[in-house]
Design a protein that fits this description.
- By secondary structure, this protein is α/β, with parallel strands linked by helices.
- It contains 7 helices and 8 strands, in the order ββαααβαβαβαβαββ.
- It has helices spanning about 20-30, 45-65, 65-70, 85-90, 105-110, 120-130, 150-160, and strands at about 5, 10-15, 75-80, 95-100, 115-120, 140, 165-170, 180-185.
- The strands form 2 sheets. The protein has a 6-stranded mixed sheet with strand order 5-4-3-6-8-7, with helices on both faces. It has a two-stranded antiparallel ribbon with strand order 1-2.
- The two termini are about 20 Å apart.
Length: about 200
């Protein structure tokens, strides 16, 4: 695939699939054929690692929004994949909802969360949430932005709706892509914390 550099510094394929092609790929192949970072089965150590990452990130939320974590929060997982975050936050007593192109991942790894999963085009589903005026304490994206056609548009849509956006950015080992791996969106800026804004990266 031929690559081109985005104005914000990350690399993307020059000829992108249509939304329909992308949805068919994730619905029919991605999880079923163990593409990307997903596997048909995980070892016990891998599952413990997933759990440790979720606990680590939850501790960040406990620092940022303690009043929410001490009660019952509301989480929207955009591109919820295999549903590990859905299951974890539900275990903490949160009300959760997941949206994804496919139900295959959740159905295989966390079938207990199928009742809170909605499938379809992620952008269309997110716009439906926005039009409905639904609010969440946290909107969660993990390993998502590198899978959507326009990651900047997705971030800007979330920022317009929820205001406060903080992003943890990781660089891939190849140096070819900027992977935005963890995104938290809060309706209000926690006391004492400044709300970051999306800025261009000169690199």
């Amino acid at each position: 695939q031929r690559l081109k550099k985005h104005r914000l510094g990350f690399w993307e394929i020059a000829e992108k699939p249509t939304p329909q092609e992308l949805q068919r790929y994730y619905a029919d192949k991605y999880y079923q054929e163990a593409k990307g970072s997903y596997e048909l089965e995980y070892t016990k150590d891998e599952l413990l690692y997933f759990r440790a990452k979720l606990e680590q990130r939850y501790s960040v939320l406990q620092h940022l929004i303690p009043q929410v974590c001490e009660s019952t929060g509301r989480l929207l997982d955009v591109g919820c994949g295999e549903g590990y975050a859905l299951a974890f936050f539900r275990e903490q007593g949160w009300s959760v909802k997941g949206i994804d192109f496919s139900s295959a991942g959740v159905g295989a790894k966390n079938p207990g969360c199928m009742d809170v999963l909605v499938t379809g085009d992620i952008f269309a589903l997110l716009q439906a949430e926005i039009r409905a005026g639904t609010t969440y304490d946290v909107v969660w994206l993990q390993n998502v932005l590198e899978h959507v056609i326009d990651p900047l548009d997705l971030l800007e849509s979330l920022q317009r709706q929820f205001g406060h956006v903080s992003v943890e950015r990781l660089l891939s080992g190849s140096g070819l892509t900027h992977i935005f791996n963890f995104l938290q969106i809060h309706q209000k800026t926690p006391s004492g914390l400044a709300a970051p804004t999306l800025k261009e990266d000169s690199g």
